């Protein structure tokens, strides 16, 4: 049994106070689902097996380009971050892995592995960083990295990605995610084709260094930090990259990296159909890459994305194993609370999508019954699956109410005493 950061007796007491109400709610929902021909325990078991990775940078307070307002007890280094991630997993039982960001999380690999293993955690995809300059680096990324006009700058960016793979190998990761800030701010500043050619050339070098059992994820973003054009701007370009690189290359879909109102679930469907969906960065947004908590603005969109994923799961699409990760900026909340609720929201969307009557949906689609097809989805979405999620957590040692248990534990006050206040400089959006 791994060491738990929150007192397990406290979690047990918190759960005991809620258990009988939960059992009644679970039974009532079970009866309702039974009438729809859905065995509730099977849904609960699928929910219990669902996992989403925590980004190491998510446990620190985020910020905007205007300011950052750090909270108490912010993690000082990757080992504090692992501790905070352990809290999230202990109470939700949905986040067994951490996604590291290099160089922010650079540390002795053996120590990283040991710290995670002690908490029962493992490492998800590695993330490289060539969107800012780091102390001691020779060439600046001000005008780009993997697509830079200067060969030495590109070589430095490639080298950094190779180092990320090396660290990842040492700590048991199986994937590298590459997002670049490369692009232009003025029409004419950059030749679109030449920049993309240089990018592909750099990525081919990274791909060549990828271990046999690894996957390479490329992440597109429509704008920002470059405001006129970005080199990897949309899913079409992302798909071309994955096709050019080879069978270990896949597209990563960050929900915030599209224009408002873009039909993301349809992009997901296309990438599944052509075997190139690598995974997700979950978050929510109203205007752009807002990095808001998953499901707070548009839970229906999150559900519709999971509807595509569950449909693919049911069709047993070969090689279908998308990586799930949160990628958010917590500017006004306790990041641990935000990440716990976001993990719950992502799991909720998955559970709701499992309830879709696919036989009925197929029939309505064949009959062109638009209204009933939509209602079939809505019926699943409107079902309050809360008791299923809570029961899955309870049975796997988590908290029935993760935020209540966390607040009762006083964890934030405790770490605030141990960790000196961080300086409020720098942005937090990634
Ligand atoms: Mn992202």
Automatic annotation (TrEMBL):
Presence of keyword Metal-binding: yes
What Gene Ontology molecular function terms does this protein carry? isomerase activity
* This protein's UniProt keywords: Isomerase, Manganese, Metal-binding
Q: Boundaries of each Xylose isomerase-like TIM barrel domain copy?
A: 100-295
Instruction: Write down the InterPro entries for this protein, in alphabetical order.
Output: L-rhamnose_isomerase (IPR050337), L_rhamnose_iso (IPR013451), Xyl_isomerase-like_sf (IPR036237), Xyl_isomerase-like_TIM-brl (IPR013022)
PANTHER family to which the protein is assigned, alphabetical: L-RHAMNOSE ISOMERASE
Q: What is this protein called?
A: L-rhamnose catabolism isomerase
Q: Which organism is it from?
A: Chelativorans intermedius
Q: Which gene encodes it?
A: rhaI
């Amino acid at each position: 049994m791994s060491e738990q950061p929150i007192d397990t007796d406290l979690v047990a007491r918190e759960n005991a106070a809620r258990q009988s109400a939960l059992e009644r709610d679970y039974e009532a929902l079970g009866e309702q689902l039974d009438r729809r021909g859905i065995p509730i325990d099977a849904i609960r078991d699928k929910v219990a097996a669902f996992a989403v990775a925590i980004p190491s940078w998510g446990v620190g307070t985020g910020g905007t380009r205007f300011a950052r307002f750090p909270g108490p007890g912010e993690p000082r280094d990757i080992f504090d971050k692992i501790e905070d991630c352990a809290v999230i997993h202990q109470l939700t039982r949905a986040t067994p892995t951490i996604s590291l960001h290099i160089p922010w999380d650079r540390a002795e690999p053996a120590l990283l592995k040991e710290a995670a293993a002690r908490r029962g955690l493992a490492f998800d995809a590695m993330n490289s960083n060539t969107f800012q300059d780091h102390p001691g680096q020779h060439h600046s990324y001000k005008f780009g990295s993997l697509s830079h006009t200067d060969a030495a700058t590109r070589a430095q960016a490639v080298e950094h990605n190779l180092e990320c793979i090396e660290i990842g190998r040492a700590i048991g990761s199986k994937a590298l995610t590459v997002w670049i800030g490369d692009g232009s701010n003025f029409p004419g500043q950059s030749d679109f084709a030449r920049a993309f050619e240089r990018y592909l050339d750099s990525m081919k070098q990274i791909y060549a260094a990828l271990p046999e059992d690894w996957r390479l994820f490329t992440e597109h973003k429509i704008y920002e930090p470059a405001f006129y054009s970005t080199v990897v701007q949309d899913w079409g370009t992302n798909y071309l990259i994955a096709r050019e690189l080879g069978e270990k290359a896949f597209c990563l879909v960050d929900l915030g990296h599209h224009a408002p109102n873009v039909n993301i679930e349809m992009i997901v469907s296309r990438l599944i159909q052509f075997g190139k969906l690598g995974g997700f960065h979950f978050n929510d947004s109203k205007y752009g890459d807002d990095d808001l908590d998953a499901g707070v603005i548009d839970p229906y969109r999150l559900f519709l994305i999971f509807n595509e994923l569950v449909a693919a799961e049911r069709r047993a699409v070969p090689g279908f194993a998308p990586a799930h990760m949160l990628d958010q900026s917590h500017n006004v909340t306790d990041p641990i609370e935000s990440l716990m609720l976001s993990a719950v929201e992502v799991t909720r969307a998955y559970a709701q999508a499992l309830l879709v009557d696919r036989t009925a949906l197929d029939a309505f689609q064949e009959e062109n019954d638009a209204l009933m097809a939509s209602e079939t989805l809505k019926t699943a979405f409107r079902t309050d699956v809360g008791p299923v999620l809570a029961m899955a957590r309870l049975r796997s040692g988590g908290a029935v109410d993760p935020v209540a248990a966390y607040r009762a534990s006083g964890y934030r006050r405790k770490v605030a005493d141990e960790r000196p206040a961080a300086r409020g400089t720098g942005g937090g959006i990634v």
